[in-house]
Structures are given as C-alpha cells and as structure tokens.
C-alpha cells in the first residue's frame, strides 16, 4: 500500500444524491459504510480507509477503499453480483475513483465478468475514465445485458501494475430511458452561402488575423476554380479570385490565419469546409494542413490534407454544432514550424443535404433496376381479352446490406428478429479477431465465431471475415508483442493457416490486415513484404474468398493519413508486390457527412476498378432526427454509386454500436434513424400489381433480386419465381397459365 499525501475537497453528499433519486442500486455496501463487506480483491489486496485517518477524503460518506499490491492490469476491487442482474436490461454505472501514483493519469475501467448457464464466459466493458492522484473523478457508463448470467462479478481494473486503484463509491442501477429528441427547427439556413468574411481577399486581410506570432500577407497565383467537392455542392459557375493568404514566420504548428464567426452559425446545420492549400519550402517532405474549428477552446476537425510545395491541394471537410457555443474560430494549421503556408478560397457554407437526392434517385434507378417483361400465355379467351391479374412481390434484395453482430446479441430475441428481417449479410464485431480467437498463446476460442456462423447459415445470411490481422498495436495481444522476429513470423503463419483452414469457403470476404494506413505493427517487425505475403497466403488457403483492404476516414476528408490518393497508392503497391487485392473496404465511421465529399472520394477510388464496400458504416448525432438525415445521406450516396457493391453497418442496437449511432433503442423501440433506414429499404424494394395488356404482357422496372409473381384469370391461378439480375436489356419471363 502507498501513502497518499494529496488533500482533496470533500464532495459531501454527491453519492447520496443517487439514492435520493430512487435508483434501484444493485451494488451492496456501495460507499463502504459496512467496511469491506461484500468486497474482495481481484488478484490483489484491498484496504479500507477512514475519513479521520489521512488527508485524502472520500467523495461522500466516511470511508473509501483501495486495491493494493496489484501485479497485473486486471487486478482490482470486485463484488459478486450474481442473481441481481436481469437479461435484456440496460444499466448505468457510476463510481468515484482516483489512483495513487506520480503518473499524470491512468485509465480506470469498470468491467463485468459473466458466465452463462452453458458455461460461456464474457467480459463486458461498462465504463472508463482517466484518473489521477490529485482529485476524485466520476466514472460513468451504460451497458446492456443480454444473456441471463449464471454468475456475475463487477470490478475495477486498468492502471499499470503497482498503481493502487482508490474508490469512494460504486453504484449500478437500471438505466432510465431519455425522452425522444424533437426534430430541430432551423430558420433561414441560407444554404450555399459562405459565412466567412472576405474569403476572396478582395479587401486585403479584412476579417482575418494571425493566430500566434506568424505574419499574414495577400498574394496572387492560386487557382481560380473551386475545389472538386465544393463544385459538387455549389456548382461549376462559381469562381475564385486567385488571391491567397501567405503565412510566414510560423513558430508553432498551430500558427496560421484565423477568423471568428460565432454569430453566423446555426445549430444542427451541417457546414461544408473547402479550401485550396499549399506549403512553402523549409520542411522535410510533405506537410499536414488542417482546417480547425475552435469551439469554446475545443478542437473540431474541419478537414485535413497532406500538402507539398509543388501543387495546390484541396481541403474538403465538414462540421456541425449541436449545442450553443460562446466562441467559434476557424484557423488553418499543421505544417512544421518555419514552413510557410498558403491558403486560398477558404469557405464555410451550410449544405442542403437533400438537394442531391433527386439526382441520386435517378442514378439509383438507372444502376440498381432493370426493365422486366412478363409474357403470359394460356388461359381462356376471356382472360386474354380482359387481361390477367398480376401481382409481383420482391422477396429478396440481391444488393448486400448487412451489419456487424456479436455473440451476445444472439441471446436477445428482439435483436435477432430485427437483424434477420432487415439484413442479408453479417460481419462479426470481434469474434473472428486474433485477440479473441487466441487471447493467450495456445488458448483458442472459436466457439463464438462457430455459433455466429451457424446462426448465419440457418438464416441464409452471407458473411464477411473481419479480420485476419490488425496493424494497430493496441489490438495486438501481449503475448504476440513479446515474440521475437522469427517466432512472430511463425505465429503469423500458424494463425492464418488455422483460421482459413477451419473456415475455408465459409466467408465470402476477408479483411486481410485491418487499417494498414494507420498502423504498422507487423510491417515494422517483419518487413515491407509481410502485407503482400498475408494476401498471397490467404488466397492460397481460401481461393474463393475476395480479399479486402479496410480503413477509415477515407471518405470524409478528415485524415491526411487516409486520403483516397494514399489509399490508391497503397493498393497499387500491394498489387505490384503480387497481393491479390479483390476489394476496397471503406469503413464509413462518419460524423457530419456531406454527400459531395463522399461522392468525390468514391469517384477517386473507383479508378482502380475494384468493388468498393462500406464495411463499418455508422453516423453520429445526439438528435435522432439528425442522425436519420445523416444515415440517409450515406445510404443514398453509396447505393447510387456504380463502384459500391455492398453496405455493412457497424451495429444497429443501442450499446452494441457507436454511441448515439444506433437504429434501435436497447428496449427494442425503433428510433427515427431506424425508421428512416426501413423507409429506404421499402423504397428500394419493388412490389407492383396490375393487368396484362392486349399482347398478354405485363411490364415493370424492378430492383435487382428475387421475385414471386402471382397470375390469375377467371378460373386459373399460378405462381412463379424469377430473378432480376444486372443488365441493360429487358429481362423476359415466360409464364404459362
């Protein structure tokens, strides 16, 4: 145990407020008023502390506890809560914690371990917070419990070994469901009008000022045309002046031109950001340039690109505010100190997101539909004269529309029902990743992925394999990190052999090595050719599977590491090294989507001629009506683009997807985003009825997929199925009554 000499403000009564509010807390002795009763150490010791014996005061009450002599990150204080949790119920957790350490901070995690009746074990992350030794901080979280646990233990963990976890209170209670958010009302959004002052610099530097000690001047020689993504939104007729801001004497990366525009912003409106940028000499290699939005001191990414001295490059991004700010400033930053910066035509304007919808609908009808002629013969003369009654119903949509699922979700029948009804493809959230299938060397877990595959097989759901490897070092098991080069190569070969031999022919796709634009764990240790080797080996083991690259921020202009240009260069390099890359995965974790920016990125990627899939799509907004609008933008842009051949969501159920990104609330209620999704699915499904013409034909244009037709006359009726696949000429179906 360590001594703590830091005094603290006594936050008296903060925890008692929870009880006063009537929460049905399931943690026994939550404030240690009964000593350490009901609490035990998880691989370590626990100690009780009294308010009268030290300078550290509890955040409420008279006592607090600490987990000491910790030798592993998972050591901490725990309580057995078996029998107190209900299945298909959401819970909230609240704890006041701190650490004992000279470290600036360390993450404290709240976790629940459960064991189901069939002895399946599961660890559920229920909350986390960055804690320090100087003050109490509140850890908060929510989680959904699906299976009925036979055993359950809640505990705190996280900091490195040797650091004590200190806890003043720990509460867990059923979550209250917030009231639905109303649809925001925006008056006079002035779509397409730039809200920045003097963007063309006709009036010198009016409206602009230097952030930091840099110098600003106006120069000429920049492009006169709008950047491509801005042209998509504003049209081709608008032009720029050719003037630009020349920034010199930069001493910090954040120094550059700035402008304050607080009063011009409207809440819940998506703003597109566009500019031409370029850097001067003096730096080493290309330089990141970022259009930043400072909202009451909080950084918001307005767009980022890698620029050089030779060409003007487009910055294309977006942002949105959902709470009223006190001060908003835009500034351009990024290059190394001493590197000059050039900024031309920086504009910020509200986007009419629905303006592209009619165009997208026409593109969709052209791309995803086909003319059908039903030739109906037989029947009586009266039938042929009056016309046969025809009812056509689409029973299956061939366009892949799926979501990630997890093993826990299968224990929730409402979750299963929504998934089976609305999706035809699946990807597993974590259950196929190496850290899940072999968390410790030689300790294998294929049970969860086997169960998910069997579930998909039973319901006719096709599957993507995500992922064989993951370049992010944070997703690599500790035992893998500790291997030397030779042992690591052997482990890589064994893993890919084990996985693809076990599941040969069962996954239609594989994300071979996830997020290679953002990580390089295996490449750093095994050399440049390891990436192409992984693809070659995967193809050799399962030649039927299409092998994908997969990365994020490719479509939104927010990350210089993953611009379409960089993604294309990476794919071409892999192909030149012999890697059989068969598809491009665009994850699609996007906030504040702008259709023209997404479309421009897809156009750029399509030059490779490979199928593009949105592999992990989700959108975010605290307002479910705005979330619905964002989702519609992404789905329409993807469905209308000829290079896109599939869309996968990264979850659809609350607490099993990105926060504020779900379609269905934890209790099974479909929110506005879910309703919009279902409405679009209905729009993209063909159901028609009518009568044949004098030639005995019934004509319609239908979405690609499987159909059932019922034809009836005065005395006869017949049913027949047929498929509408891709093609330009009409498909003719012969039906004999």
Description of the molecule:
- The protein has 737 residues and is of the alpha/beta class.
- The chain has 15 helices and 36 strands.
- The chain has an 8-stranded parallel beta barrel, surrounded by 4 helices.
- It is globular and about 100 Å long.
- The N terminus is likely disordered.
Give the strand order of the largest sheet, numbering strands 1, 2, ... along the chain: 23-24-25-26-27-28-30-31
User: What ranges have pLDDT less than 50 throughout 5 or more consecutive residues?
Assistant: 1-22
Q: Mind summarizing the main beta sheet?
A: 8 strands, parallel, barrel
Mean pLDDT: 93
Shape: globular
Q: Radius of gyration, rounded? A: 29 Å
How far do the termini sit from each other?
A: 87 Å
Strands, total number: 36
Number of helices: 15
By helix and strand content, what is the structural category?
Answer: alpha/beta
| Helical content band | 10-25%
Q: In percent, how much strand structure appears in the residues?
A: 25-35%
Descriptive terms for the model:
single chain, 737 residues, alpha/beta, eight-stranded parallel beta barrel, 15 helices, 20% helix
